[in-house]
Amino acid sequence: MDTASNPLPEDNAQATPLIARQPIYNTQMGIYGYELLFRPARGSKSQIQSAEATAHVLTSAIVGSGLNQLVYHRKAIINVTPAFIHVMPQIQLPPDQIVLDVPDNIRVDHGLIESLRELKAKGFEISIGGLATLKDDRIIKLADIFRVDVRKLDVALLDRLTKFLRRFKNLSLRALKIETLAEYDLYREGGYDLFQGYFLGSPRTAKFRDLSVNKLAIMDLLAAVYDVETSVEDLEEKIARDVTLSFKLLRLVNSPFFGVPKEVESVKRAVVLLGRKEVRKLVSLLALSSTSDQPVATVEIALLRARACELLGERTNLPSDGFFTVGMFSALDIILEQPIGHLLSKLPLNETIKVAILRRGGVMGQALACVLAIENGRWSGILFGDLSEADISAVYRDALQWTNGVLGKL
Question: Domain extents for the chain?
């Protein structure tokens, strides 16, 4: 069917789905790509019924948001149905950036194989999974990635499956539902190449241990920045004491991203020009990004949470002062590898912020809960105040754009 000559019904065209994303990590804890998760917008009459409608609506959502804004020049992994696979050649997505996630229970027939061959020839990568697909060499030879749900198989079967799949030299193994760093290490050492789960973004339950000198310095700086009693002069001195931090702060402030009218040449001038609130945000993100023993992905998580929370506050006309802090510091345990309550107890934050982070209490806690729901693809939790799903989707897209811009300057 020529989808270009069969426009979508009006209600389909407007039913832009919500988009969430889940990171997929490589063996260096870098981000290989993101699985893009879609859910039809509430109130959609059609609920995206046909394959053609699905393809067009999802393409529209991706193109409208900007693929690189969603995945930051990384791979985009998209779940596809058999019908979707057949209409894929007719839609416009960059093949070299797209991985097609074929469902486990798919019926492998001649038509499917030919469609996948055609897509592979265009540059799309193919991801498959499920024990049933192992019965057909044709689809395994076409696949670039084989995904394994490590929660579904016992240890013995998982070991046999891994050894079997390792025979296919061009096949990357993707482990799903990795929940702890120990599991990440276990499957990486066991021959897996890609890892998906909440092991990096979930709260840490690490035992108390001494912070490294670098991390102690970060906590000391954050304490000074958030202490209302710290004078501008003391704040300037504290920041200027770290030459690298000072350099990065001035470079960030003077970048086109911030658009200051005149070059800022000193830390003191930055504090005066931007104000304590903005400097506090910048110093926090720069300090936390300086933890060289942590993957960049941890900083990305913190930045995205911070900006999304802040934008939710702004969209509802609430004083957005603490929203950024709540989002940013909700990831402190991920970055500093200490229990979150212990870390927060050492910072001069008001109780409202601490309750928001620890118990999702108050309006800032509700904003954080909404952002975490998007992060985890938990659709029922994507709620905040009286904002519509379209409003929340716009907030998330704007937060992604801001995060990508800041990451490019760090």
Answer: 3-196, 213-407
pLDDT at position 213: 63
- 3-196 falls under which CATH superfamily? EAL domain (3.20.20.450)
Q: Measured between alpha carbons, how far is residue 240 from residues 12, 249, 255, 402 in Å?
A: 55, 10, 19, 26
Structure tokens at 219: 């906590």
Residues 335-345 have pLDDT tens digits of 888 888 888 99
Q: What is the pTM of this model?
A: 0.82
Q: 396: burial class by Cβ within 10 Å (0-12, 13-18, 19+)?
A: buried
User: What is the reported pLDDT for 177?
Assistant: 93
**pLDDT tens sequence across 8-66:** 333 444 445 677 888 999 998 888 999 988 776 665 544 444 555 556 666 666 766 67
Fold assignment, 213-407: Hypothetical protein af1432 (1.10.3210)
